TrEMBL record:
This is Glycosyltransferase RgtA/B/C/D-like domain-containing protein. The chain crosses the membrane at residues 12-31, 38-58, 114-132, 144-160, 166-184, 191-207, 235-255, 304-323, 335-354, 360-383. The keyword Isomerase does not apply. It comes from the Bacteria. Keywords: Membrane, Transmembrane, Transmembrane helix. Signal peptide: none annotated. It comes from Larkinella terrae.
Length: 540
């Protein structure tokens, strides 16, 4: 099947479908009354159908990004847990709501693999794009709205690897766009609904801590909209709702006598990750320099033309606005300033950690489109049409490059070793037995279908030297004692583990070495991977 999918004739066929449909949408933008027999819903439905079909067709049942293995390991662990809520909160690397869709699938008995995870991600994209379209069509012509929604679908139909895999940005974008959809209607909402909107925004740190700056931007927008209609009595409800998730989890963890984990896993660790140089050598000035930003946006040939098309159109719109200020309507003014602040907050969130992972850029998709849509609503119809068509042409050129340069996912050189280790794990354990990996090879949880014996799918946070290492080491030993995982596997080898280094061998950490020596015994060595099995506990 893979031979057919990546053969030049089939790739040309996929490109032809996208090009023809893009041409039809472009024609509809220019001639609004064309294709009278087809409603806007039909156009949108065909767009979604093409997007889903192409993504599913090219979705490999292999790891495209290591983070996907992390979230699949979390979902698998939640699905096998006796206390799913506690497990979801503690075994999700501080992002329980981001992996909730996968966890629900495992809980209802769906055994996830990489292809199914990608399908869930695509469906979440569809929901987000549909809601975003509902937002845009309230002040844009439906043809322009359709074209703007098609731009990310056109790109995301053809990307692969890091940009295409299931990751937390997918759920994060859904959370933000739904929050914006409700905020735009907050003026008429009863107080209980205002509290609910605040609660939704207050959950963002538990979707992905990186979304907090965007959540603050959305929250301030809600405050402004309530202030405009002088609904001062509803303002405390919005603030209280936003604080409620943290308060509820504080009470929950206090009841478990485990507030240290709440603080360490959700806040302290991500503060160090995002606001220090412990995980990145880039200084704050280097992280936010214009040159660095441009290089980051354009560093991959899979999407550099997309950003040129989108941000080029935004610059044209801003230039037109400066030459002829037309923000006369109150709605236009507030949408413009909010869109600008949202985009700035998103850039800040993407850049703050100093780690230029490709999937972070997904957080720029919707604020940039929203700003472009607002600017488009201020321009003359003919100019808006031209700007949108140029953007459509640029993104189609990017999709064309992706179609013809798309290649099968490379098989990891260590794949035979992964298979040997996975088979040994399955032979030496039962489906519910915990597994601990000393190293960064999360895919072994997915291959072997074994839950996490420690609250992270790898031990990176434990062995990597940071200011939180002492806390993480204490937490690691506590989890091993409480869960008593059946297998402890030393995968600290550069052949298969990220960040592998002899300095990170578990023997170099006295407390961990002592615990493993006391409670585990070496039962198998496969090449340079050592498999330890827990000793039988003596009955006292």
């Amino acid at each position: 099947m893979e031979t057919v999918l990546y053969a030049l004739p089939f790739r040309f066929f996929i490109w032809l479908l996208l090009a023809v449909w893009s041409g039809i949408i472009g024609w509809k933008v220019i001639f609004r009354d064309s294709f009278p027999r087809f409603s806007g819903r039909v156009f949108l439905g065909i767009s979604f159908l093409l997007f889903v079909a192409i993504r599913v067709l090219y979705a490999p049942d292999r790891q495209q990004n290591i983070d996907t293995s992390t979230w699949l390991a979390t979902a698998l662990t939640v699905g096998k847990a006796s206390d799913p809520l506690y497990t979801l909160l503690n075994y999700s690397d501080g992002r329980p709501l981001a992996v909730l869709p996968l966890a629900i699938a495992e809980l209802i008995g769906i055994s996830l693999d990489y292809r199914l995870a990608d399908l869930i991600g695509v469906l979440l994209w569809c929901i987000t794009l549909w809601v975003f379209g509902r937002i845009l069509k309230s002040y844009l012509a439906k043809e322009i709205t359709l074209a703007l929604i098609w731009l990310p679908m056109l790109l995301l139909s053809t990307v692969w690897n890091d940009f295409a895999s299931f990751n937390t940005e997918i759920t994060g974008n859904l959370w933000l766009v739904l929050g914006l959809f409700w905020l735009l209607r907050i003026r008429e909402k009863p107080v209980w609904a205002v509290v609910g909107i605040g609660f939704w925004l207050g959950c963002l740190p538990f979707v992905k801590f990186q979304t907090v700056p965007m959540g603050i931007a959305l929250g301030l927008f809600g405050v402004w909209k309530l202030y405009q209609v002088r609904r001062f009595s509803a303002l405390p409800g919005l603030v209280a709702g936003a604080l409620l998730p943290v308060l509820l989890l504080t009470v929950y963890y206090a009841g478990k006598n485990d507030l240290d984990s709440f603080w360490g896993d959700y806040f302290s660790n991500y503060f160090v990750y995002s606001y220090t140089t412990e995980y990145s050598d880039l200084s704050p000035g280097e992280r936010f320099s214009p040159v660095h930003i441009v290089r980051y946006l354009l560093h991959s040939y899979q999407f550099f033309l997309y950003w040129i098309g989108i941000f080029g159109a935004i610059l044209v719109g801003l230039f037109g606005l400066i030459r002829r200020p037309v923000l006369k309507m109150t709605g236009q003014k507030e949408r413009f300033w909010f869109a600008l602040i949202w985009l700035i907050a998103s850039f800040y969130a993407v850049l703050q950690a100093g780690n230029n992972y490709t999937h972070y850029l997904l957080f720029l998709v919707f604020p940039s489109l929203f700003l472009l849509s607002v600017l488009g609503s201020t321009l003359a119809v003919a100019i808006t049409q031209k700007v949108v068509l140029v953007s459509l042409g640029t993104v189609l050129a990017q999709a064309s490059i992706n179609c013809f340069f798309r290649k099968p996912l490379d098989i990891h050189p260590g794949e035979p070793l992964f298979q040997q280790i996975s088979a040994e794990i399955q032979n030496r354990s039962q489906p519910d037995d915990g597994l601990v990996l000393w190293g960064y090879v999360d895919r072994l949880h997915v291959y072997a279908r074994r839950p996490m014996g420690y609250r992270n799918s790898n031990a990176f946070w434990v062995y990597f030297p940071t200011s939180t290492q002492a806390f993480r080491m204490k937490e690691f030993l506590s989890d091993l004692e409480q869960n008593k995982p059946r297998l402890f596997i030393d995968v600290m080898t550069p052949r298969i583990s990220m960040f592998a280094d002899k300095a990170y061998k578990f023997e170099n950490y006295p407390a961990i070495n002592a615990y493993i020596s006391q409670h585990y015994q070496l039962v198998k060595t496969i090449e340079d991977v050592r498999i330890y099995e827990r000793k039988r506990e003596k009955i006292k």
